[in-house]
Amino acid sequence: MAFTFVPYQKKEYQQSQNVTNAQNALQQHQQNKPGDYQSQWQGQIDDLLKQYQSRGPFQYDINADAMYQQLLDRYVQQGQQAMMDTMGQAAALTGGYGNSYAQSVGQQTYQGYLQGAYDMMPQFYQMALDRYQMEGDDLLSQYGLLSDQEDRAYGQYMDMLNQYYAQLDRLQGAYESERDYDFGKYQYDESFDYNTWMDDQEYQYKADRDAVADDQWRQQMEFQREQARLEAERWQKEYEERIRQYNESMAWQREQAAMAAAANNNSGSGSGSYARNNSTLPAAKSSAKTSAIINGLGSADTWASRGVTRKEYNAMVRDRINNSDLSDAEVLYLLQYYGLA
Question: Residue 60's closest CA among 119, 116, 117, 124?
């Protein structure tokens, strides 16, 4: 089967349930964030401060003092009554007739009552000043009480806000820690899966290439064997032709030798001449060329270890002999050496 590339399917990151739980806890806490501080007493505090600051310096008008005016009216009435009584008593003493003495005594009595009212003015001033100071002190006291209450309420709010942020930091840290661990695990697993995929693709590719290489090698070997077979057939035909020609030549030479021997016998000089003619027959002969061919080709066992058959090896030998510049004696030597004669 040919190698087929399979694209890598990358897994998208999916956060774990632990990360989701930590995220939900963080978001729920964020939704419970305390709102802005709302003071229950700041309006009253501001009003009290405004009242105190707008009072201005102490001022007293005796004529505007209603209590003093009531006192003065009473003293005037009492003075007038006392003046009438005094004038009546004085008139009685003088025989019932009005006179300047009675008027003078009555006027003095009236003025005494008025003086008594006048003598009360410092007391009314002091009372008005005391009321002014008491009102100011009361405003300051209320201001202080409400300010203390405000400080306590604001302190409680800040404590609640600080607790919120402390819990927020803890939940944020827990979420980030869980998320970083989870994403790191995803990256590790993804890297492992990718490397496994790469190894598998490389293995499949190499296996396919090895199979292709083996197939190509087999095809090449089959081609070489076929070429060797064809070459062996061609060489065999040439060899047989050379052997035929050689045998033909040998037969002709033997025929010539026989004829020469018969002629020598007739002439009485046989054996010496026969020996000379018989020496012209070719004999197997080794040489530097034959040694070079033998050493260059190597043994049949060496080629057999490479998958070359004996027939293919013999074809190689014949091809080398056929393509070498050799004498008949050298050819015969090699044929006998390789067992092909």
Answer: 124
Q: Check pLDDT > 90 for residue 29.
A: yes
| 249, two tokens | 């030549």
Specify which of 134-143, 222-231, 277-286 reaches the highest per-range mean pLDDT: 134-143
Mean pLDDT of 325-329: 87
Beta carbons within 10 angstroms of residue 333's beta carbon: 21
DSSP 63: G
Q: DSSP labels for 189-239? A: HHHHHHHHHHHHHHHHHHHHHHHHHHHHHHHHHHHHHHHHHHHHHHHHHHH
Question: End-to-end CA distance of the chain, in Å?
Answer: 49
Mean pLDDT of 139-165: 93
Cα separation, 297 vs 290, whole angstroms: 11
Nearest C-alpha neighbor of 58 from the set 154, 165, 150, 134: 134
Give the DSSP H or E segment for 90. helix 66-93
**Residue 311 and residue 300 in contact, taking contact as beta carbons nearer than 8 Å:** no
Residues in the chain: 341
Q: Which of 260 and 45 is assigned the larger pLDDT? A: 45
Report CA torsion sign: 254, 258, 263, 264.
positive
Provide the residue type at 192 as one letter: F
Rounded CA gap, 195 and 201, in Å? 10
Instruction: Find how far residue 41's CA is from the centre of its chain.
Output: 52
Q: Which two tokens stand for residue 319?
A: 């091809």
* Number of neighbours of residue 31 by Cβ within 10 angstroms: 7
Highest mean pLDDT out of 93-97, 233-237, 261-265, 302-306: 302-306
